Amino acid sequence: MPIVNWNAFLLPYGQTVDALCLKFNNIIEEYNVRGTPPPIRSVTGRVKKIGSILAKANRKGITPDRIKEEIEDIAGIRIQCPYVEDIKKVIEIIRRHDGLDLKILRERDYITNTKPSGYRSYHIMVRYCLVTAEGPQEINCEIQIRTLAMDFWATSEHYLRYKYNGNIPVELQKRLHSAAEAAFQLDREMSLIREEIQEVEKAEMASNDLVDEILANIQNLYFSTGLDQANRMNQEFLGLFQEGDMQKLLDFNRRLGVMTDLYREEHGR
Fold it and tell me: How far is CA 166 from CA 47, 76, 79, 161, in A?
């Protein structure tokens, strides 16, 4: 029978979108609390408009009484990742939830198997167990995972497809395909740049850890030998720090340790 109360019909889909958005935003927060860059930049969701649902049902020959069973993307989640390699991390996160609060129905890899238009994204169709006042309901939802560049291209292509009523001019299709390739090359280049950033961050962390250790050793030297010796070593440290030579700082730190140990041995401390 036809759907009479669309608000009541769409309510659990909206609740599912809200619940999944909250879940993924909580995952972002977990990464931030641990001090680890999250593989998710942002999460958005939507429920299809009634007109879009009816239009899809007409295209596919779906009767109104079969809409809930046969249109699986009424609820949709879009996850934007900073880098291409983060997409795999998000996929694994979702797979770890399979069989718990959601069930994975199917996966479609449009990144490895790019659509002819140039479209790239990773789709996971899930069935989410929603807790309602009338008891649990299983609601289908499509999760799309893509990078910022992929999302920018897909949003532009969707707008043009709507503007041209699905018949984008051939020349514009070629330009879109070229733009899709350029966006993917940008993603790959940014992944390489990310590796360089991570190397710099590692070096910076190592430098900060070394400085902390040196200052702690100077403080130990103060307690062992007194203020004058500690001040001399602190001045020497400041000079070496300004030079920025890590090897000299490492040698200096070893010397601090040796000085403290010798003093303690000589004075029985």
Answer: 21, 21, 25, 5
Give dist(CA 221, CA 259) in Å, integer. 8
Separation CA 100–CA 139 (nearest Å): 14
Angle, vertex CA 177, rays to CA 172 and CA 183, nearest 5: 125
142 assigned to active site: yes
What is the per-residue pLDDT across 181-201, written as a single tens digit (0 to 9) for each?
Answer: 888 888 888 888 877 776 766
**Residues 16 and 141 sit within 8 Å (Cβ to Cβ):** yes
Sheet holding 102-109, edge to edge: 42-47, 75-81, 135-147, 122-132, 102-109
pLDDT value at residue 160:
86
Burial of 48 from C-beta contacts in 10 A (0-12 / 13-18 / 19+):
middle
Supply the pTM of this predicted model.
0.72
CA distance 50 to 67: 11
Q: What are phi and psi of 78, to 5 degrees?
A: -120, 120
Residues of the chain with pLDDT under 70: 1-4, 198, 200-201, 203, 224-226, 260-269
Other C-beta atoms within 10 Å of 230: how many? 19
Domains, the chain, ranges and CATH? Answer: 6-148 (3.30.460.10), 169-269 (no CATH)
The pLDDT value recorded for residue 45 is 96
How far apart are alpha carbons 212 and 230 in whole angstroms? 15
Q: Which among 30, 85, 92, 142 is annotated as catalytic?
A: 142
